[in-house]
């Protein structure tokens, strides 16, 4: 059944921002907001990964903390929602499973756009069932500070040739912020002010997170 916007005969357009969010920061919020505007999305669903597939051998903060920080960072924006669907699923949080579940929930006519940064696009061929995945939703690929723009453009071109126009490039302002860098700063007792929302900073302080250095 088509999932229609109230009083309008147009199918919904939903952005999905999957991430480890360990912790969530302004880089994530900017790509979500940019995608919302550039692609006229009705909402952006933040989906914290329960078990991020490419970080199986890394230490990742407990899901409940990452989920709560994601909620704190997004709850002032009515167009942003957080989903616990990957937290509730056992095993690695493969995107193909998430898209299949969202397709069941929203119906075949809803436009689903998975939002990623340049790093994810560059390792896309290592994702589970990527051929099926690329056909099951659209992708919005954001530029990211520190990543080879040429390789990024080449990969997008290649995906166009192989699968048709399923992936859209999105230029965003360069924000040299990563969760890795934030964890390091906190561990070194440095400030993360202005790199992530104050509510998230408070949560980290209150719960004494990232005191032990992680990769
Ligand atoms: N500053 C940024 N600019 C553009 N895209 C970003 C930025 N930060 C994160 N992303 C994208 O957001 C998604 C989720 O990122 P993730 O939660 O892994 O954060 P991260 O900062 O890359 O974390 P880590 O440093 O721990 O790998 C990924 O697709 C990633 O490419
Ligand atoms: O499905 C996969 O094989 C897959 C492999 C790597 C990453 N992902 C998803 O991409 C998103 C960003 O991943 P990460 O590790 O950069 O936080 C997150 O939603 C992951 O579940 C998905």
TrEMBL record:
An example molecular function term from Gene Ontology annotations: ATP binding
Q: Cite the Cytidyltransferase-like domain residue spans from the record.
A: 16-185
- Name the domain of life this protein comes from: Bacteria
User: Which UniProt key words apply to this protein?
Assistant: ATP-binding, NAD, Nucleotide-binding, Nucleotidyltransferase, Pyridine nucleotide biosynthesis, Transferase
For this protein, the record's SUPFAM superfamilies field holds: Nucleotidylyl transferase
According to its UniProt record, what is one Pfam family this protein matches?
A: CTP_transf_like
Q: Does the keyword NAD apply?
A: yes
Q: Which InterPro entries match?
A: Cyt_trans-like (IPR004821), NadD/NMNAT (IPR005248), Rossmann-like_a/b/a_fold (IPR014729)
Report the EC code(s) recorded for this entry.
2.7.7.18
Listed under GO biological process in this entry are:
NAD+ biosynthetic process
**Reactions the enzyme catalyzes:** nicotinate beta-D-ribonucleotide + ATP + H(+) = deamido-NAD(+) + diphosphate
Question: What is its pathway?
Answer: Cofactor biosynthesis; NAD(+) biosynthesis; deamido-NAD(+) from nicotinate D-ribonucleotide: step 1/1
Which PANTHER family has this protein been placed in?
Answer: NICOTINATE-NUCLEOTIDE ADENYLYLTRANSFERASE-RELATED, PHOSPHOPANTETHEINE ADENYLYLTRANSFERASE
What family does this belong to?
A: Belongs to the NadD family.
Give a short account of what the protein does.
Catalyzes the reversible adenylation of nicotinate mononucleotide (NaMN) to nicotinic acid adenine dinucleotide (NaAD).
The record, for HAMAP family, names: NaMN_adenylyltr
Tell me the protein's name.
Probable nicotinate-nucleotide adenylyltransferase
Organism of derivation: Irregularibacter muris
Q: Which gene encodes it?
A: nadD
